[in-house]
User: Fold this.
Amino acid sequence: MDILVMLEDNPEHSTVLAHVNSVPAPLNSERPPRDVVTLYGVPSPESLALALAAAVESRRLPNERSDTIRHLGVWPERGAVGDSAWRDMSSGQLLTRDLEIPLETLVDTARQLLGECGQTIRRLVAGLTMPDWPEGARRAITFSLTPMVAMSLPGAIQLDGMLESFREADGITFDSDGD
Assistant:
């Protein structure tokens, strides 16, 4: 799961905590789909985890298609609300559906994300809030949360593999064959 996390410094432009948008993979491309998470105001690990939870949960929705475009607003008191759109392959008609992910679901998934990959989330927040970004530069960091794909499938939570992947990414691999 490729994710672009951006920070919008001017929270007065939006009353939401974050926006989560999906961008499907281009046709005839091996590039995976991407989620774009835009945080508003001063980010925290908890706010980023809540926004990432919306991205993960939006992929768990029934009848989810790989070519779906989603737009969600994330509110700390409401959960995630938005819509999705896709083109019907047989008729070519554009279809839409309203989306709503309850706050309780987001909070549970955010807790799980913080528990399993909190260090990575804290690093992302630290990177976004570093004071040495060039003035006027868009604060944005791209990362891949590939192990979350397993988590996004209903009933297929494989957190051990995700945790091992984060250990490898952090250079904390270990060999347990000799144990």
